[in-house]
């Protein structure tokens, strides 16, 4: 039986998930959040328009370009980037809150954002999701019916560049079966929680009980 005195939650992990657009990252995240309710999702700010299934404050905070630029000026973003012609930024406040509370937080950001996170927070975990092939990626983008042919063209072009960065990540998941991919990602996050660095406070208490 667990000793309640030692049941304090471990310090949280920062998990970065990147993928070429259309690989299935959002679908995986939806499943993951449903199966790991204690996992926080970092809700980015963006200037792009919401898709039909998206809700303000859940997938993104949808803001005007003016507001985004004011937030940049006020230092409200840990990192921000222009991706496929729109601005996207990670909220400093959300990151700090999760870190203070010792919670795991998942960042859905592109390869530029991942560079920043790795430099500033080297203990973070990088996971790259790729589709089984370029042809399958194109099929998924077209079937999703959320982007214009021009936007799809831009995303496919960017995918050729983005996919070259796969070696920079700790894990690479080929999203063939989405249920399987979400399952593996869940296991990665659960295993990350057991890293010694994430369990410092808890283990130090236990060690103290040994008189050390
Ligand atoms: P992303 O967030 O990476 O841009 P989405 O999650 O929106 O991608 O997925 C793109 C499209 O592909 C969606 O229509 C989604 O239902 C579909 N999809 C996602 N994963 C798979 C998969 N493993 N097999 C087939 N279709 C998938
Ligand atoms: P989408 O428009 O398909 O939701 O996202 C486009 C790209 O922007 C994805 O690669 C996504 O990971 C990335 N993205 C979303 N939010 C952020 C963010 O806050 N910072 C960075 N750098 N990229 C982001």
Strand content: 15-25%
- Give the oligomeric state of the chains in this entry, treating copies of one chain as homo and distinct chains as hetero: single chain
Query: What's the number of extended β-strand segments?
Result: 9
Superfamily (CATH H level) name of the domain at 9-42 and 102-209? P-loop containing nucleotide triphosphate hydrolases
Structural class: alpha/beta
**Per the principal axes of the C-alpha atoms, what is the gross shape?**
globular
CATH architecture of the domain at 9-42 and 102-209: 3-Layer(aba) Sandwich
Q: Give the overall average pLDDT.
A: 92
Can you tell me the residue ranges where pLDDT is under 50 for at least 5 consecutive residues? Answer: 1-9
Helix share of residues?
Answer: 40-55%
Plain-language structure description:
With 212 residues, the chain is an alpha/beta fold. It has a domain at 9-42 and 102-209: P-loop containing nucleotide triphosphate hydrolases (Rossmann fold), CATH 3.40.50.300. It contains eight helices and nine strands. Strands 2-7-1-8-9 form a five-stranded parallel β-sheet, sandwiched between helices. It has a four-stranded mixed β-sheet with strand order 4-3-6-5. A hairpin with a 2-residue loop joins strand 5 (77-83) and strand 6. Helix 1 crosses helix 7. The radius of gyration is 18 Å and the shape is globular. The two termini are 23 Å apart. It binds adenosine-5'-diphosphate and guanosine-5'-monophosphate. Guanosine-5'-monophosphate is lined by residues 18, 21, 44, 48, 79, 81, 83-84, 88-90, 108-110, 112-113.
């Amino acid at each position: 039986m667990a000793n309640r005195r030692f049941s304090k939650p471990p310090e949280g992990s920062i998990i970065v998930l990147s993928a070429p657009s259309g690989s299935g990252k959002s679908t995986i995240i939806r499943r993951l959040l449903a199966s790991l309710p204690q996992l926080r999702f970092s809700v980015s700010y963006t200037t792009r328009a919401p898709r039909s299934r998206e809700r303000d404050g859940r997938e993104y905070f949808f803001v005007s370009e003016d507001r985004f630029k004011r937030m940049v000026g006020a230092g409200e973003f840990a990192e921000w980037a222009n991706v496929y012609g729109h601005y996207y930024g990670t909220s400093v406040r959300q990151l700090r809150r999760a870190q203070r509370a010792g919670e795991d937080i998942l960042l859905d950001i592109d390869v530029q954002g991942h560079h920043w996170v790795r430099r500033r927070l080297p203990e973070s975990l990088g996971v790259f999701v790729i589709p089984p092939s370029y042809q399958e990626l194109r099929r998924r983008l077209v079937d999703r019916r959320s982007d214009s042919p021009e936007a799809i063209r831009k995303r496919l072009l960017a995918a050729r560049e983005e996919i070259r960065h796969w070696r920079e990540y700790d894990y690479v998941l080929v999203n063939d079966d989405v249920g399987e991919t979400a399952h593996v990602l869940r296991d990665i996050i659960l295993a990350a929680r057991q890293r010694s660095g994430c369990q410092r406070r808890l283990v130090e208490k236990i060690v103290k009980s040994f008189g050390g």
